[in-house]
Design brief:
Layout lengths: L1 H13 L2 E5 L8 H17 L3 E5 L3 H9 L5 E3 L7
Parallel strand pairs: 1-2, 2-3
């Protein structure tokens, strides 16, 4: 998770939108993922930018909601178009 946090911090500083596709990811700790995404998502949100998560399993969505992570979370079956 440390590498993810470092990469997101860099991207959040210079991007209008960061897209993370979790479709093929194995997430062993939804809580740790939400904690890792919280700061970069807040930085993007405060600047009027966006963190978009695709392929978000229900347990991860619940943890993102619980942690109030300001990100757009699309489920596995959500169409992109």
């Amino acid at each position: 998770m440390d590498q993810v946090a470092r990469a997101l911090a860099i991207l959040a500083a210079c991007s209008d939108m960061v897209v993370i596709d979790l479709t093929a990811a194995t997430i062993t700790s939804p809580h740790a993922l939400a904690r890792t995404l919280a700061a970069p998502a807040a930085e993007l949100d405060q600047a009027g930018r966006c963190l978009l998560l695709r392929g978000v399993p229900p347990q991860v969505r619940a943890e993102l909601d619980r942690a109030a992570v300001p990100a757009i979370a699309l489920a596995d079956d959500a169409p992109l178009a």
